[in-house]
Amino acid sequence: MKSAVANDHEQGWDFEKAAMPYVDSLYNTAYRMTRNSEDAEDLVQETYLKAYKYYDKFEEGTNFKAWLFKIMKNTFINNYRKKKLTPHKIDFSEIEESYERVIQKNAPDLIKDPESEIFQDMMDADVKRALDSLPHDYKMVVLLADIEGFSYKEIAEILDCPVGTVMSRLYRGRKMLERTLLDYARKYGYIRGGAEPAKMRSRKDDLKGRKKKDEGAEEVEVREPDENEEEILFKEEEDFEFEVADEEDEEFAIE
Amino acid sequence: MGCEDVRRVIYFFLDGSLNDAKLREISRHLDDCPDCGMRARIQKRLRQFIRRRLTPVAAPERFKVRLSRSLRALSYEL
Ligand SMILES: [Zn+2]
Fold first, then answer.
1. Is there a contact between B74 and A52 if contact means CB atoms under 8 Å apart?
2. Options 1.20.5.170, 3.20.20.390, 2.130.10.10, 1.10.1740.10; CATH of A4-82
3. Can you give the pTM of this predicted structure?
4. Residues whose CB is under 5 A from ligand 1 (ion)?
5. What residues contact A27, with CB distance under 8 A and at least 6 apart?
């Protein structure tokens, strides 16, 4: 008969075997969250020790990687977020407007040669900076979806929020990221852009500007973004609440 | 679905996470509407670009060793 110690032992090995394959993924995300290697290491280490401690709570057959990410997210929030981050207030209408403008202005350059990579000279650092510039909640969903390949549902589980919130953050986050990248691309001359900086013009100027667009192009109406329209848009899908994602943080499952 | 609606879901369309009916509806729109079609292509390329450039940072080897060691230590300790 095995002693309790031997069992713990086996559990330890078992856990290590199960969890170590995800260390790079977790570290990568931790690094993007904390922005430095020392804190990233501490965060991953703490995550693993906690996961080990609660290993018996993990339900066999569910997504182990998502479970680890969830522990890491909770750990991160407990350790870091409370002390330094206040909720970001973002003016989405500004983001969407300037994004629209960049897209409209640069569309011909952006698609003229589908085989060539217009951004190829752009520094990795620029892309990373663009990602870093996203508010935490938006960065997280972009990382989890686009880098780690989690499904919306898994992300919702990791972040303890409705799927609709995930989608809303993803939508906004990607848009912010793309806008920033397009701004970089323009700033460094990778795509042609007017002399004007990527700063906001007033809505009135914007309307005037668009009148000059070529005849054939469809007129895009400038209007106040309506927060409710996402709700309407997604109402057929189950789960979709598509709330605006400024809510404060939820209860934590672990701890 | 108008252009404005389509543009709001292009991301999710590109993710392949819309239901079949909506997927077909949007594909059709993108084929028929040059402006939205172009946007979808731009967004697709930007996404590829972002994904390619954000190469994951691997955990340092010495960290992995340390981590394994602490996990093992823990399993003896408990
Ligand atoms: Zn259209």
1. yes
2. 1.10.1740.10
3. 0.66
4. B 3, 33, 36
5. A40, A41, A44, B57, B58, B59, B63
